[in-house]
Amino acid sequence: MTGGAAGSLRDGPPRGRRAARIGLERLSLNQATVKHLGLKEAAALCARHDIPAIGLWRDRVAEAGLAEAAAAVRAAGLRVSSLCRGGFFTQADAEGRRAALADNLAAIAEAAELGTNTLVLVCGGLPPGQRDLGLARRMVADAIGELVPEAQRLGVRLGIEALHPMFCADRCVISSLGEAVDLALRFPADAVGVVVDTYHVWWDARLADEIARAGPRIVSYQVCDWVLPLPADTLLGRGHLGDGVIDFGPVTAAVTAAGYHGDVEVEIFNAEIWDAPPDQTAATVRERFATVLGGCLSEERPMRRWRAVAAAGLAVAAGAVLAVAAGRGPAAVPAGPGEPAIRATGGAPPMGWSSWSFLRKHPTAASVEAQAWALKSSGLAAHGYRYVNVDDFWMACDSHGPEVDAYGRWIPDRAAFPGGIAAVARQVHAEGLKFGLYVTPGIPENAVRRNTAIAGTSQRAGQIADPAVTEMNYNCGHMYGLDYGTPAAQRYIDSWAGEFAAWGVDYVKLDGVGTWDVPDIEAWSAALRQTGRPMVLELSSNLAISHAAQWAWMASGWRTGLDIECYACERSGSSYPLTSWSNVASRFGTVARWQPYGGPRGWNDEDSLEIGNGAGDGLTLPERQTMMALWSLAGSPLILGTDLTRLTPADLAILENRAVIAVDQDGIAARRVIDGAGEQVFVKRQPGGVWYAGVFNTDTSAPRTFRVPLARLGIGGAARATDLWTGRSLGTVSGSYTVTIAPGGVSLLSVRPA
């Protein structure tokens, strides 16, 4: 069950014949483009040239007077697209920082008075005499945090603008759109967003991914061209659209696809343009805007479900980002005020069982309850395996997709679940266990066909559905997108989450999602939180690593790869063998790549743990130990996919090894320190000074002997080692650790400096 990655910037739509007539209603002239005009003259210029919006600068507002400036703009019939600028937080002393904070609070009030909801922030360069970029970036983050309450009170969004890296020292220590997004995600979406300025970000190879990741956080889109040769003052190396090297079509298409449909500001710093007659400049701006950008500002909004997410109150605040900017790992970043209700497991990766791998397309109340009983009677529950999760195929379907209730929500297949889902959840809870359930994004076609009511509202399914968007559903299909510009769309998801809570659901798997589904994920995250019932939210599958920070602030866990099951290996009529060595071995690279993003606040999910049924697992005994060790070192959820009613003693011993479980339950993701021919070594350090290390033989044809220098593990001198499989002390190890490992096997150790 796969997801997908963000597309390339080369995928922008072609410009058509209608270009000259499309998009001008979104044109805004930034006041900096006509620098020598006062505010009233600039407003009159816009009115003369039928430019409907203007971006203002605070110095020119101050010259005119705040009330007079607001009146002049209103008299000209203009929108104020943004106010520039706030920021410059990186002052050398406390007095300077207090002054900067006061100035920014004043700027927020000015923006509100002028009628704009966007204050552009240029965050400031290195403090005078300093070289510590990490410190400067923390200053920026701290200052923005101080501004958030006032921004929320006045309805102004703070737009973090990334400046080209050449301005890092003196103007802005936020040098890429990715850094700006990471920083914005620490704060509520209704208060903090990002500015996409083509002059500053056009060069970035990751621009497509970062624009998609920003999504509804984009508060302003500013355009000008990068002209050559650059002048001595590189800040003035900007020109009219089409006069330089920037390919605006793909960038604009990406911004539009991300859900931004607001004003587009033309902001040009160029001495020759400043000296040109203002009417000539305005006419050129209008003509170039229509011909260069018009075809990409189509009235047809291809990803309509992105729009107005923040306005609908769907966004949740982040706490697992700014690792690069602040020099900390994700777990070190404090929780944001909008943190999802993901602490249902107390910060440890969840453990339990899921129906998909073994029961596959045929879950029933009886089969799920039998697995729950086996989970308890085998002793696994006493070792922490407590979740019993029903995956896909629990819902009833007809030729138009999932069947629905009076409020447009899926209903259970009554043949398989005659007492409904709540009855199964009650039975699971009676065993002292927790219950999980599966869902996919969107609204069923059947809900739209019946035009069902939306619980708690006067609206109906047809008013919130976007039939132009097909959401992923692997069983029934026929799921439409939701238009989150309609507040009732969130209420619809709220009602579904409320039903899950009433049924007794403790774990929700949201499948078939990817970068295109950020609004759906935010909606489910917010909806689960408002129920008041602690529920794990798991995202599936094969999520894009480019959006790892977003997954971390919206959910409890996120699938990092494709399904672990070996569908091509299965025998006719059977789920066996459940997986294969090649599928397990593919996780070595996945675990290494995703390591920075896992932690006690959210987990890199390597998919089901296929251990329990001996040869039916599709792995040898050493390979099953490898799977358990790798998942545990990754801090992955340990969700079994096997038939718990037929556990083998050898596999039960692997699964119940308390020392190995402890490696997983600290929630820390191990880093790879050796990636060699036939050898993989991962290590993580506990706060108490204990290292967990796994040495893997990836050669499945023969035993191998490996010598691992302790220095590669981060240990200087000698250390005491313990074999975690047996609990046997290996004595004191000096310099290096040498071990012979079975084919496909692992040596899993705890190591403490002597």
Describe this structure as you would to a colleague.
- This protein has 754 residues and is an alpha/beta fold.
- It folds into 3 domains: 24-304, Divalent-metal-dependent TIM barrel enzymes (TIM Barrel); 340-442 and 490-666, Alpha-Beta Barrel (TIM Barrel); 672-753, Immunoglobulin-like, CATH 2.60.40.1180.
- Helix content is 32%, strand content 19%.
- The protein is built from 25 helices and 31 strands.
- The protein has an 8-stranded parallel barrel, surrounded by 6 helices. An 8-stranded parallel beta sheet has the order 22-21-20-19-15-12-11-23. It has a 6-stranded antiparallel beta sheet with strand order 24-25-26-31-28-29, covered by helices on one side.
- Helix 2 packs across helix 3 (66-75) and helix 8 packs parallel to helix 9.
- It is globular, with a radius of gyration of 28 Å.
- The chain starts with 26 loop residues before the first strand and ends with a strand.
Rounded to an integer, what's the Rg over CA atoms?
28 Å
- Alpha-carbon distance between the two ends: 47 Å
- Tell me the helix content: 25-40%
Which stretches are low in confidence, meaning pLDDT under 50 for 5 or more residues running? 1-22, 298-344
